[in-house]
Automatic annotation (TrEMBL):
This is Universal stress protein. Residues 1-145 form the UspA domain. InterPro entries: Rossmann-like_a/b/a_fold, Universal_stress_UspA, UspA. It comes from Paraburkholderia elongata. It comes from the Bacteria. Belongs to the universal stress protein A family.
Length: 167
């Protein structure tokens, strides 16, 4: 079954729910887990005259290290093996969704777990959705964990039968 599980985390309550689900899933399957944090310095910052990205980038990397430390501690408590990873978007057009796709491919992930805020209407239009963009380009099953405690949304022919709601 699934032996390589990637979970996208960024420190929010929703991504914590996704990590918890991925931990349970990895524990039950005896799978390796790779928590992934993506550092994204918005493209708009690059266009500001005299902008120094070092401070913003360093702050995001520090946040990523804290998120990864928490993920590693949770993995140890759950008895789940794996290695966390931090990646960065770049100016070549690799947004967060594409960075997750590349990391999943490099890790040879059998399934990707991620949180979704479930925004609709104007808020979704303005804020966009990393989860939705990733779901459109994913090359493996995806387990989406709702911010609102509902049932997970799955994608992929294998996912609908074999991914169970976490307890």
């Amino acid at each position: 079954m699934y032996q390589q599980i990637l979970v996208a985390v960024e420190g929010s309550e929703t991504s914590t729910r996704a990590l918890d689900a991925a931990l349970q899933f990895a524990h039950d399957a005896g799978a390796k887990l790779q928590p992934l944090f993506v550092v994204d310095v918005p493209l708009l910052v690059y266009d500001l005259p005299g902008s120094d990205l070092t401070h913003a980038r360093n702050a995001l990397l520090e946040q990523g290290r804290h998120v990864m430390d928490d993920a590693v501690a949770s993995m140890k408590r759950a008895g789940v093996q794996g290695t966390p990873r931090i990646v960065e978007t770049d100016l070549a057009g690799n947004d967060i969704a594409h960075c997750i796709l590349r990391a999943a491919s490099e890790f040879k992930a059998d399934v990707v777990v991620m949180g979704t805020h479930g925004r609709r209407g104007f808020r979704r239009l303005v804020l966009g959705s990393v989860a939705e963009r990733f779901l459109r380009i994913a090359q493996c099953p995806v387990l989406m964990i709702s911010a609102h405690g509902g049932k997970p949304v799955t994608s992929g022919a294998q996912a609908t039968e074999s991914i169970k709601e976490p307890s």
